[in-house]
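> call design_seq(struct)
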C-alpha cells in the first residue's frame, strides 16, 4: 500500500462523509490526494480539507482508477452497486453500510478488537453497525478477561444515526412544539421530539428489528465468538448526537466491579466515567464529538450469575462510523 495513498470519500456531503473528511484532517492521515464523490445532485459542491476547497465529483463506476482506499458512506444500495467496481479497479473499499458485513469473505473490523482481520480483505472491508461498535468497545475487553456468554441490552440512539434529514426533523419538531404549532414529520413514523420510538430499522418475522439482531450477528463475527447471544431493544431518542447503551452481561468466569473496572481502565479507545456519588457517568451530550467511548454505572447484575451491568456512550458519527473507517485505513497503510 502506498504510504501516502490517494483517498476517496464516497457520500462526501452526508453527515458521516463530512466527519470522514474532518477525521482524516484531525488525525493527520498521510493523504497523497483526496477525491470527494457523491450523487449527481451534490456534484460541484465545495468542501474544505486542510484549508483548501475540493470540488465534489459525481460517483460513477469509473471513479476509482488510481485510488488506493475508498471510504464509503452512501447507503447499502450504493455500496452494492459501486464497491465491487472500486475493488476490481484495485482500490480497497472501507464500507460503512450493512451491505457486506455478514459476507464471510469480507472482514468486519473494529481496530481496537480485531485489527489483524484487515489483512484478509479481498478488496472490501466492512465497518460494523454504530451501536455494535459502541457496545463492543466496553464489552470486548471484559470478554477477553471473563468470557461473555450473553447480554441483554437497550440502546438509546441519537437521530444523527438516521442522517442529516433526521437531525433537521428533530430541530424543526422542537420548534413546532415550543411554538404550539402542529408537529410535522417525514423521517420517522412518529414524532421524535419529546418522545422515544422503540423501533430502529425494519421488523423481522421474529419481532426483533434488523438493528437489534446486528448486535448478536456482528458481535459474533468481530469477537470470533460464535456462541455469543444478545437480546436487544433498540430505541430512537430525541438526542442529536452520540448513542448510549444499557448492558447487562453474563460471563463464564467470576467478575467483580473492581476487576471489571481494572480491565476497562486499560482498554484502548475507552474512558471510564464512573463516580455515581458525584453524578458522573457517560452522557451522550459529553461523548458527542469525542473519539473515545465512555463507560460507567458499573455494578453487579442482581438477576444474572457472574453478571455485570454497565452504561456505555459513544459518538456514532465518529467511533460508530467515520473514525472507525479512518482507523481501518490507518491499519491498511501500516
Amino acid at each position: 500500500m502506498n504510504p501516502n495513498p490517494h483517498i476517496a470519500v464516497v457520500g462526501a456531503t452526508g453527515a458521516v462523509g463530512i466527519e470522514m473528511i474532518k477525521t482524516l484532517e484531525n488525525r493527520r492521515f498521510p493523504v497523497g490526494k483526496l477525491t470527494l464523490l457523491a450523487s449527481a445532485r451534490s456534484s460541484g459542491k465545495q468542501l474544505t480539507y486542510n484549508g483548501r476547497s475540493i470540488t465534489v465529483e459525481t460517483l460513477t463506476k469509473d471513479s476509482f482508477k488510481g485510488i488506493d482506499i475508498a471510504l464509503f458512506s452512501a447507503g447499502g444500495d450504493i455500496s452494492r452497486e459501486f464497491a465491487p467496481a472500486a475493488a476490481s479497479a484495485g482500490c480497497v473499499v472501507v464500507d460503512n453500510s450493512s451491505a457486506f458485513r455478514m459476507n464471510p469473505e469480507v472482514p468486519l473490523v473494529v481496530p481496537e478488537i480485531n485489527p489483524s482481520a484487515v489483512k484478509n480483505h479481498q478488496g472490501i472491508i466492512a465497518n460494523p453497525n454504530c451501536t455494535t461498535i459502541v457496545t463492543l468497545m466496553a464489552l470486548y475487553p471484559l470478554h477477553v478477561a471473563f468470557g461473555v456468554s450473553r447480554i441483554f441490552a437497550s440502546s438509546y440512539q441519537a437521530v444523527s444515526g438516521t442522517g442529516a434529514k433526521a437531525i433537521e426533523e428533530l430541530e424543526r419538531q422542537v420548534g413546532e412544539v415550543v411554538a404550539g404549532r402542529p408537529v410535522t414529520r417525514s423521517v420517522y413514523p412518529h414524532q421524535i421530539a419529546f418522545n422515544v420510538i422503540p423501533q430502529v430499522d425494519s421488523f423481522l418475522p421474529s419481532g426483533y428489528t434488523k438493528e437489534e439482531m446486528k448486535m448478536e450477528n456482528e458481535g459474533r463475527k468481530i469477537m470470533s465468538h460464535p456462541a455469543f447471544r444478545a437480546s436487544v431493544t433498540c430505541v430512537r431518542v430525541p438526542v442529536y448526537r452520540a448513542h448510549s447503551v444499557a448492558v447487562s452481561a453474563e460471563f463464564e468466569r467470576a467478575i467483580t466491579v473492581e476487576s471489571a473496572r481494572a480491565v476497562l481502565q486499560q482498554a484502548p479507545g475507552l474512558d471510564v466515567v464512573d463516580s455515581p456519588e458525584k453524578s458522573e457517568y457517560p452522557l451522550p451530550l459529553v461523548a458527542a464529538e469525542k473519539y473515545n467511548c465512555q463507560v460507567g454505572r458499573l455494578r453487579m447484575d442482581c438477576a444474572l450469575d457472574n453478571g455485570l451491568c454497565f452504561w456505555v456512550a459513544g459518538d456514532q458519527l465518529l467511533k460508530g462510523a467515520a473514525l472507525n473507517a479512518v482507523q481501518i485505513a490507518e491499519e491498511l497503510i501500516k
